[in-house]
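Figure caption, in words: inputs first, then the predicted bound structure.
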Amino acid sequence: MSDEAKKSDKATLRIWRGNAEGGEFKEYEVGTYPGMVVLDAIHDVQAEHAPDLAVRWNCKAGRCGSCSAEINGKPRLLCMTRMSHFEPGQPITVTPMKTFPIVKDLVTDVSHNFRVAKRIPPFKPRPRDADGHWRMQQIDIDRIQEFRKCIECFLCQDVCHVLRDHDKHDSFAGPRFMIHLATLDMHPLDTVDRRPMMKEELGIGYCNITRCCTEVCPEHITITDNGIIPLKERVADDFFDPVRWLMRKISPPANKKSLPVLPDPIKATTKTKKKQDAEA
Ligand code: SF4
Ligand code: SF4
Ligand code: FES
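Bound structure (FE2/S2 (inorganic) cluster present):
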């Protein structure tokens, strides 16, 4: 099919353009073709109308997690959202993720997430068995396997109301890191006890299991039911069951080393789109 024939139908993109100081929506018309995704349309806008339009992407295959944005108000990957998903003739609105500070146009500063990641102590396995091997039950492997599909797109962080609406960046790690913590806590070989940290620093109590994060995850990870709820139960058992609490005080868990609670809360440093909208 020729390029002209491919682009016989038109679509209007309403894209937010601006930076941390402010911005506005601008409309662009592009041709459409079968199989086109929103990232293709953004690239056509760059090629035909606005070469300075900023968008972050890398794989165009739903693997790198770079192209996260909001399309008609819903957090989505630009490269995995087909244009045919939307009503023909209706403008498609594309905005940057609202929870993170704006860099330019559709690009946000997600470095806050990497600062949170750094604070979580890494996997530390127990010594190998006498024959030099580690042994695990298949059921334990299967349980955490789905969490390892995470592509770090941070769409779950974007949609979580604790971060998005209540700005608890300094006290709640967010759903992406709750499943990271679940991966570690449920790992049968790991020796580090991160539950005091989950309770005191990473704010697991803030999650009120609305499941919005699960709904937007492009990897279909059951973040809330399989990750956060079991973690909440483990933390509640350790700290609010009086018998378990007493046992923990008298004798900390044999295979998990207790960690001190660290100071230095997690800070968001620059202006988010939400703050910018509020000031406008
Ligand atoms: S379930 Fe918890 S982590 Fe997920 S969006 Fe709701 S409050 Fe946030
Ligand atoms: S859990 Fe899902 S939505 Fe959250 S960062 Fe990972 S892949 Fe993205
Ligand atoms: S460009 Fe890699 S996930 Fe979209």
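Confidence is low (pLDDT under 50) at residues 257-270.
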